[in-house]
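Q: Here's a chain of 190 amino acids. Please give me its 3D structure as tokens.
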Amino acid sequence: MPITEAVNAALGQMEAAMKERLRKLGKDFSVLRTGRANPLVLDSVRVEYYGQEVPLKQVAAVSVPEARVLEIRPWDPSALTEIEKAIQKADLGAMPQNDGKMLRLTLPTMTEERRRDMVKLVKKMGEEFRVGVRNDRRDALEKIKKAEKLKELSEDEAKGIEGRIQKATDSFVKQIDEAVLVKEKEIATI
């Protein structure tokens, strides 16, 4: 019996969902403050610009001249005060310094307690994403069982596909674990 389109679609949906989870985990990890300056911490900052709320990156360039310093250079110098207000409102744990042309945001060093809290948060996030991947696996397995029940698949084919599903799940869980370890190491680095 050939594998039906429904089964292929179920496998494709599962892999796409797992890849999307992995991508989202990377994005979520990138905005966590680790002690080093990272322009991505400003991604959530929205600036009032000519009556519109726009992302900071649309009105300014952000650079990292030093390990714990972010420089924000507005494209339009008249937006400097609005950018400063938006950064203060975002409560990033540091106050921007305005020199009239740009803002400098010096991030404070993280305390040992804060590092431990961040590691706990990273582990919790990793576990949430692992659970999500396992839920994707469960959904795909249910579709395979249904196809087997409807005689679209033989028992042997279903077992083979279940093996493929488990292999994919293990691969994505391993990638999540590796991402968690990398982020933990990054947080622990002073």
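Q: Can you summarize the key feature?
A: The CA atoms of residues 157 and 165 lie 12 Å apart.
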